[in-house]
Amino acid sequence: MTTRIKNTHQDKGLVLVLQDLHASAPAQLRSKSGDEAAHDYCWSALVLSAAFGFRVSPGHQYYLYWVESRWRLSLISPEEWGRRQPGAFVARCELRHDMTWELMFDEAVTMGSEVHNALVRYLEGIRSQLECSGSWSALL
Q: Where are the strands (E) in the chain, listed by range?
């Protein structure tokens, strides 16, 4: 007896999703040290906590701003905004192929600045969560 699977429109959508996942999968993943993994977690969580309304993809550059006491990710660079910039520019961000974020902080993010203080509070929050959970594994 042969079982025949009926294709539906939903199956076609699933195939497209799987193709997207396969296309975006890194060709080679490398092991990271504990420090590298912690670094990647902290900055990736920061970017993912930002407000944004678009789909991100590896290899593209995005821009992180501090706007009215909130993080905001944008497709628009500070140079493109000009005087209409929505808030303080924080960093250029790139989604790597391993789905972690690399941040290149702006030189204007200096000790004592509002953005610097917000970053310190953010990192203190992660440290507090880590202390409560007891380990990185439990936190994740």
A: 61-67, 70-74, 88-95, 101-105
